[in-house]
Model the fold of this input.
Amino acid sequence: MDAFRRQLDQLMGANRNGDVQEVSRKYYDRDVCRMFLVGLCPHELFQLTKMDMGPCPKIHSLQLRKEYEEGKAKGIHNYDRDLEDVIDRLIIECDRKIARALKRLEEEDAKAAIAISVSEVTQIPEVLELSKEIKEKLKEADQYDLEGKTDLKIRVLEVVEELRTRRADKQSMLLLDAFNKDRASLPQPLPNPPPLAPLPVVAPDPRTQEMINEKLKKAEELGEQGMIDEAQKALEEAEALKKLPARQEPVVDSSKYTAADVRITDQKLRVCDICGAFLSVYDSDRRLADHFGGKLHLGYMQIREKLAELQVLLYVSNSTIEILSYYFICEFSFP
Done:
């Protein structure tokens, strides 16, 4: 019931029943979400994903956010630190998962240790301009929401989705180009390899190889969903299958196995340095676009951008205080 009431508050306003007590609510009340006031509540970012935090237990109100911003401009309150602490913890945990994934890939493939930086490859002026336009449109939608202009808000949000799709498509093409260059540098299997001397390690039988391929495919799918630990477990299971002794089966003509089989077994995974999802250098542009437009990637991208913004504001604030302190010391220390 409480969760349903909170949803009604967000859709129709906390004073939907004309309660005088609700009218008197202030932005500094304890039941008001400070993170939303600052501009971003993590509870809204990861809905229906692995990182779903559930509905926010506190009130979200654009009117109270406006009042907070007015109070902040006057130096009355500043909740930037509250949001910074929360999203900093989220990013630290994400970076730990990325580090574990990279370490795992490094053990399998030394080249994966120099994984492509998704954030660097995809940050070109055109993408940055689209991101800027998206932020401006979201502010415009909030303003229409505050004014009760629902139709205009819906239209603006439709434009936002179009801009996000354009950005995701552009980012996917940039990363695909980088992956193509990365793939070209990988050792290419010979089309008709010469017969080799028997090795002490026997190759897995066809059934085991099929199970290995399924585990690798599952690891890739889990990685795209941001389920890093589960993906690593699937990779470990694939490794364990590789070490199983081959069962005695009829001899199969090795010429039936081609370079395509090698590619399936060796997915050449890379890790997204923004959200921690696994990406393959063999992914298509559509699959990469789905990744960039997914809630998990967009959510982590927003909190990383917000953290950088808050850190800049904190630096500017501290620098201003230091300059003013120095000025007053100089002004009143000498006769």
Observations:
- The mean pLDDT is 77.
- Strands lie at 269-271, 278-280.
- Residues 193 and 255 are 9 Å apart (CA to CA).
